Structures are given as C-alpha cells and as structure tokens.
Known about the structure:
The complex is a heterodimer of chains A (448) and B (243). Chain A has 448 residues and is mainly β. Helices cover 13% and strands 42% of the residues of chain A. In chain A, the strands form seven sheets. In chain A, strands 4-3-5-6-7 form a five-stranded mixed beta sheet, covered by helices on one side. In chain A, strands 10-9-8-31 form a four-stranded antiparallel beta sheet, with no helix packed on it. In chain A, a hairpin with a 5-residue loop joins strand 15 and strand 16. With 243 residues, chain B is α+β, with helices and mostly antiparallel strands. Chain B is built from nine helices and four strands; from the N terminus they run H-H-H-H-H-H-H-E-E-E-H-H-E. Chain B has helices at residues 2-18, 20-28, 34-40, 43-52, 108-125, 144-147, 151-162, 200-212, 222-231, and strands at residues 165-167, 174-182, 188-195, 233-239. A three-stranded antiparallel beta sheet of chain B has the order 3-2-4. In chain B, a hairpin with a 5-residue loop joins strand 2 (174-182) and strand 3 (188-195). Strand 2 (48-50) of chain A pairs parallel with strand 1 (165-167) of chain B, so a sheet runs across the interface.
Amino acid sequence: MLSIHDRTRKLIGGAAAALIVTGGFGLVAGGALAQPGTGVVIDINNPQRSKYPIAVPVATSGDPQTGKVIATVASFDMKVSGWFKPVDLGSVAGDLKTEGVGVDTARWKEAGAYGVIKYRSEVTGGRLTIDFKLYEVEKGDRAVLSRTYRGAPGDVRKLTHMWCNEVVKYFTGEPGFFGSRLAFSAKGGPRTKKVMAVDFDGYGAYSVTRNSSINILPAWSPSGGEIAFTSYMRANPDVYIASAGGGKPRRVSHYYGMNTGVAWSPDGSKLAVTLSKDGQPEVYIVSASDGKIIRRLTNNRAIDSGAAWSPNGSEIAFVSDREGGPQIFVMSADGSNQRRVSMNGSYNTTPSWNPRKGARQLAYTTRDGDTFDIVTLDLTSGKMVRITQNEGVNEEPSFSPNGRAIAFASHRPGGTGIYIASADGTGDAVMVWKGWSTSIDWGPTPAQ
Amino acid sequence: MASANLKVGGLVVTILLHAGLVAVALMHMGGDSAADSSESRFDSAVTIEASLAFKEVKPKTRQPQKQKKETFRPPEEQKIDTDDVVQPEEPIEKPKHKVKPKPEEIDITKTLAKNRAQDDDLSSTGVEEVPKEGSADGSKWGTETDAKGHPYAAELKGRIYSAWTVPTLETGSGEAQGCVKLDEDGKIVDRHVKKKSGNANLDRSVELALKQAPDMDEPVPDELRSLITEKGICFRFTIEQEN
C-alpha cells in the first residue's frame, strides 16, 4: 500500500498536476490565501442535499411556560416539515439573554445554524401577543421575516403553527401544513369504533361521533368544515356527513348493501363512494348534498373500492382485484380509461393522492413478505419511493395538505399509533398519536 | 334483535369479501392484532373473485427499497483551470541522478514533462493494471480526471466535498469560491470564503464545508508545500438551478 507521498512521487504528472503544482506560484502575495481571479481553483459541484439547519431557542424573557411551548411547537413543526432540522442548542455558546430577539450571527454560525427563529411573548389584559422573527445568519443580524400574532392565551399552539407556516412559505413559496388535523377511527366502547380528529401534532384530540356503533373511514371535506364517514348506527353501513367539530350527522348515502369508502371531489360538491347495491362493490359518484347517484364509474365482476380523487378532479384512483389481487388503478373522473398503475408486489391497497397542485403521485399500502409498508408512486415518471421499511406494519397513508409529508397507521416496536414521515422517503417517522387507530385522513390546512 | 344480528352478520360477510378497509375495522372488533387484521383485509376476497375474473399479472420480484440516509457520492468530474499552464515546447532531458531533490530544487517543468511522457507511455502500451477510475490514482474520491491532477489535492478536494451539503429547499443556482491552507502535517489551519455567490444558502454551505472538512491524514508533499501551506488552494463550489 503506497502512501500518498509515494503515490504523489509516482503519479505526479499530467496537465492538471501541472496546474495544481505550478498554478499557484506567484499568484498569492504576502502569504494570504489566493485572491479572486487568480490561483489554483478546483471545481466542486453536485453537492449532497440536506435539511435546513434552523435554531429555535427558548425565549429568555416573557412567561417561561409560554415561551417553552412556543419553542417546542416551532421545533416540532420545523422537524416534520420535510425541509428543516432543528439545531442542537447544546452547541450554542454563551448567554442568550444578551441577544433578546436579535441574533449574534457569529454565535449561530458557530453552532452550525443557517436560520434562527426568535420570538417574544406577553399576556396583557388576557390577550396573548407573540412577536416572531426569522433570521438567516448569512444575511446578517436583520430579521428577514417578522410577524406579530394576537389571540387568547390558549391559542399559543395555533399562533405558533401560523408562524411556522409563514416560515415554510418564506423559504419554499408554499405554505406548511401546520394547524391541520388528522381524522381517524379509534376503538370506542365494547364493539364500537368512533371517528376522532386531532391536531396533526397529536394535540387537541376529540371525538367526532358520539353514537355507540361502528364509525369508520373518515374523510375531510376540501374546506375542512365537514367529515364524511361510514357508520353502522342504523345497522347498514351508510355514509354520513358531520360537522368537523362534531354534532349530529346527516345520512347522505344509504343504498341497499354497503355505502362506504368516501372521497370528496376537490370542489366539495360530489363524493366518490363504494356501493354494493347491485351486488358487486363498485365506485359511484354521488351528490354530497343528498347522496343522489350522478354516475357509476366501474362495472365488472371484481371488487372496486377505495376511491381517491386527484387534486385537479380529473382522475380517480381506486383499488380493484380484477386482475387477481388487490391493485391500484386509475381512471378518468368519468370512469373511462381505467388502467392498473401499481406493478410492485401482489397486494396494494388504500391509495392516497398527493394534493399538491400538479402532482400526479400516489401513496399506498403494499404488502412485502409478511408485513405491510408505505410506498409512493409518481404516475408520470413511474418512480417509486419507499416510505417505511423494516419498521413493523405500516398502513393507510394520507398526504399532508402540501404533499410534503405522509401520515399513516403503524404497529411497530416503538409503539402503535399514527406516524408522520417525510414524503420523499428521507428521515425517520415521528409518532404523533399513540394508540390503535386506522383509516387515517389528513385534513386541509386552515386559512391563515 | 335476532334478525338485526343476522343482518349485521350478513353484512360482515359482505364486507369481508368486498371491502378491505371495512374488513379491517370489523376484524378489530374482536381485539385482533393489527397485523392479523391487515392480513385479512383482501385475502378472502381475492380467492373468491379470482375464480371469477382471474388474469395473471406477474409481480415484480423485489419491492422498492427505502432510501438510505444521505450518502456521500464522489464528484463525477473535476475541472481545473488551465489559463496559466505553459506547455513545454522542447523535450526535457532525463535527470542524470536519482537522488531525491530538496523541495526548493524541484524543476517543476521538467518533472511534469517527464511524468506526462510516462503517462503517455503507459497509455500507449495499454497497461491494464492502471484503472480508469477509482483509488489507484491515489485518491479514494478520484476519477480518471482527478488522476490527471495531484492525488493529494484530489484527496483534499474529496474531503471538502464530503463536508459540503446544501439545503434541499435551495433550488437556485450560484458559484462561490472557498480556500484553505494546511500546515505541513496536513491539518487545515486557515479557511475563508474568497468569493461569495450572493446565494445565502450556498455561501453558508461553503463556509461550513471549509470548517467541517476533515484534516488530511498525511503531511503535505514537498512539491505542494509552497502552494498549500503558504498560498492556499481554492475550490469553486457550483450549484445549478433545480426544476
């Protein structure tokens, strides 16, 4: 094994070597580093990509408890956004009190940060006010983004989510999904299941349904104001719609046989549902207001179910076993052009369409050996990305409102519950809800 | 009550046969494990329906694999400025003695001409033990292009590259230059961004790359000492617009 020195002596040669060895001669004066436009320059390109290191230190003034909540919420939002990674604050030197809501850029550069979020909160007259500031340390000590939010003291999480959406939008041009909610089905009492909703980060859970029956397969309306679901409250599996906050549901689809598997059209006026009124489960379009059948989309001797509407409303993905096992199919919204799109494995179900504008990407559950995992499929390029692997059983994915993350139900050594993972397949999934849950559906981000 | 139970029972059968998700929910009524319910989701339906409308589709034998954590990929290509190169016009005589010259006595032009001639000679004879790519050039980062340069510099480049990451959210373009100086033992002792791009994320990434690049394992070779320990060696970091 030759040392570098040995190899240097042996291999020195070639035009490039001439450059490296001679090119710097006479180009630098006074022992300083080479001056612009002269000297040896070696090209480096195609960098590795990473998440944006951002620091969210706890405020050193104001109510300590509120300050801690803000930092915790903002750090979590940044972490699960798919774009950022929180900077380890243990590496930050010195006393941050001297900074206030400003930044000492040298300190944060030393800590490896690209960006820093600072804030100041106070409660006056029963009203909470939070001043947020975003800094890019490379751009100096002037904030690149500032916002002030006001609300009730209990709104601290909500206001922090709003700020984090602004931060994501500042960097990427698209808002984050913070403040959105997940709907899912959980165990209720004996032999019952209930539809629940919870903030995407696992806070503020509540029950949407209050009956003592089986309530499953919730689906948020595009506005986020309502949730459709399947319930056995009148013995037959029918489709109901309730206010997202709860309340008495109205029955919209109650044909003979099963009425299930709801997907809202993007404009909220129609539902794609699975009906078995004629024997075989088929996908239909019904009115969201009264359940009246508008069109039957599938018609064959196989099972067709589990519809998912594309974000522009022109296509619908669904599950069919017409080729032997459950596979993902896509058709035009009028039922034409039905074709199989999942070509991996023999068992693929529960498609979710990426809601990002222009996206033609699905996430679905695939069986791999004796377990289930989440994959994504780009319908244009055919590229597949695996979201989970060797992490227990993972099922029923649902994209975040901006398409950058995926929530799914998981039963893994780390615990059974709802997890969120980056939709690009990088990083580790984060548990946001602990406990048995199924039929995950991620609702829209509330208007800012 | 009995008829109601019967109706529910009939529905259970229907659902098991016809809807995967509903089946999952019903299976969980009995407190089954999640894995068990998942297994049952479509299985029974498959068996029955397959007899009615079976069309064989050969699945792919291997499922897609989850991405590993970001791994280092060596640069595909290295470009080196050639503006100041003076090509020798006359063949250079071989040195008369084999005693290793002191660094200050190296005649760079002669040395390079000699080795260039050796390179040409190797090429002409097709010596196969010299690989076209890889580490035989003296750098584990290197490609054949790198091998045309100095392996020590190529190694240094690789170490800086290994520390260079740009945030995914940065989709713009830019070009920045950063320079380092090493001490004689190969330790990076001075670094600075010589030319900023104006792209904050790129400039920050270059600064961090220079800061975090690992030191060299071996001393600076004599023939590079002046350049690397006194004058410094610079790198041009380029990112291109992402669609």
